[in-house]
Amino acid sequence: MRLPWRHPLLVPAVLCALAVLAARPTDAAEKRRDGADPGISAQVARLYEDAAVATQQYEKGRVEAEAQRVQAQRFEALLDRERRDIAVLHEDLGRIARTQYRDGGGLPLTAQIILAGSPEELMRGQQVFSQANLAVNNSIEKSRRAEERLAKDEAKAVAAWQSLEKRKAELAGLKSDIEQKLEEARLQLQGQADASVAAGACRGAVRLNQPPTQVVGAWVAPVETYALSAGFGSGGSRWANRHTGQDFAVPIGTPVRAVGAGRVVKVSCGGPFGIEIVIEQAGGYYTQYAHLAAVTVDQGDQVVPGQWIGQSGTSGNSTGPHLHFEVRVTPELGSAVDPVPWLAARGVPLG
């Protein structure tokens, strides 16, 4: 029996980690300080956190799965050797049987007595016959044990494969559940943002319980994971003039970070930039974060590098989810400088 080993085998290391979904507090139990009810913003933030945990555990499981795949290949090689050994035993049995037949081992005892030339010849024949029988019995027993061992090993291998397949299906289901919940929450979050922009009034800062900021330098990128899209000075039908910032393509609800220490000088929820934040940075520069879905700071707040200040979206004149990031010499539009070399000069190369 040859087993259908496949590549790669997935290991469900993520199953326990994803149990946090059931253990998370409800939105109603979410702590809030001042500002707007965290509501859907907090749910999106939690789902992003859960997705990050799931990704880490999934990658760990992938590495473990590769190790198990190698073990499976070794086990399959062992089963092949066992099958070959059994085939050799069967050949030995056939050879012994043929030898017995040629040497008269199959003759009845009466016939052997009649045909024997002397008692000594009869005894020698009986001794050879006994030895041949012993060899046959030993070979049969050895073959029987080998076949039983092979059957058990194959049964174990089949059970292990079925278990892995079942867990792989469970893992796929859990990942799909997270993705569906996150997508639904993103749509709700963006819906609230669109309503705020249409009304021209912000609903206030949502005070999220963000994880401890892990920033080693004085400056960071405005989002942790991203793909660069439209750059500074780009032309096109989307802008009346040249593009004034750097766009970061990120999904709705992605945490947006303050690139450095500073003070929030503007929080606005109307106009072409949709929901936006402007921060006064050290050295007389200002940074703008636009097309947000939610903000987590209020005007006048002091911020530190890497602190969550909002969640990305596609509010205002936006063609899709992204963060529009600008560096200005004044708080107002029209004084922008290229943010890529500006950040690179502060030890934050974008790529």
What features would you describe in this structure?
With 351 residues, this protein is of the alpha+beta class. 48% of the residues lie in helices and 14% in strands. The protein has helices at residues 14-17, 20-23, 39-103, 109-115, 119-199, 339-344; strands at residues 227-228, 246-249, 255-257, 262-269, 275-281, 286-295, 302-303, 308-312, 323-328, 336-337. Strands 1, 2, 3, 4, 5, 6, 7, 8, 9 and 10 form a ten-stranded antiparallel beta sheet that branches. The chain is rod-shaped and about 125 Å long. It starts with 13 loop residues before the first helix and ends in a 7-residue tail after the last helix. The model is unreliable at 1-35 (pLDDT under 50).
